[in-house]
Amino acid sequence: MNGRRHGQELVRVYVRTGGRVRPSRELGLVTLVIAANAPLQGLDVEARRIAGLCRSQRSLSIGEIAAHLNLPPSAVKILVSALIDSGHLTVPPAPQQGDAPDIDLVREVLNGLRALRA
Amino acid sequence: MSNDSGPAQISYLPPTVNRSAKILIAGHFGVGKTTLVGSISEIEPLRTEEPITQASTAVDDLTQLPQKDETTVALDFGRLTLNERLVLYLFGTPGQRRFWPLWDDLAHGALGALVLVDTRRLDESDAVLAFMEERDLPYAVAVNEFTGARRFPAHEIRQALDLAPHTPLLLCDARARDACLDALITLVHYLAHRLEIRP
Question: CB distance A29–B181 less than 8 Å?
Answer without folding.
Answer: no
